[in-house]
Amino acid sequence: MEKHEKRLRKEERLCSKKLIETVFGPGGSHAMTAFPLKAVYRLVDGKSTTSTLDEMTALSNVQVLVSVPKKHFKRAVKRNRVKRQVREAYRKHKRLVSLRVNELSDKQLLIAFIWLSDELSDSVMVEKRVSNLLQRIGERI
Hints:
Elements: H1 17-24, E1 30-34, E2 37-45, H2 46-49, H3 55-59, E3 62-67, H4 76-93, H5 95-103, E4 107-115, H6 123-140
Parallel strand pairs: 3-4
Antiparallel strand pairs: 1-2, 2-4
């Protein structure tokens, strides 16, 4: 794996409201849980979801969103810590799904990780859960 493939770039982050509504919208989305994380994902056509204005979304076949509800952690410091842990774990194990999506022609995978617990967890446990979810997603698509 080359050095630039180990990074989590802007193109790999799910920022577009249109694509976020696609993930959480009716039909087509799948969800799986590895407590304290829940992954909601959807495989979409690459050309139908991107427009000429959204050229950045066409650059990456897998896009990720990390959400930690304020309901679970009132302090932003704790929410940011959990998001950092999940992003780092995804960055280390993203090849589990990216290789599989690259095999599919003209498809894009959108994944949203949602934190479910009220307690902080250590990074090793978060990394195990994220890799478990990514492996299961890679098998299903």
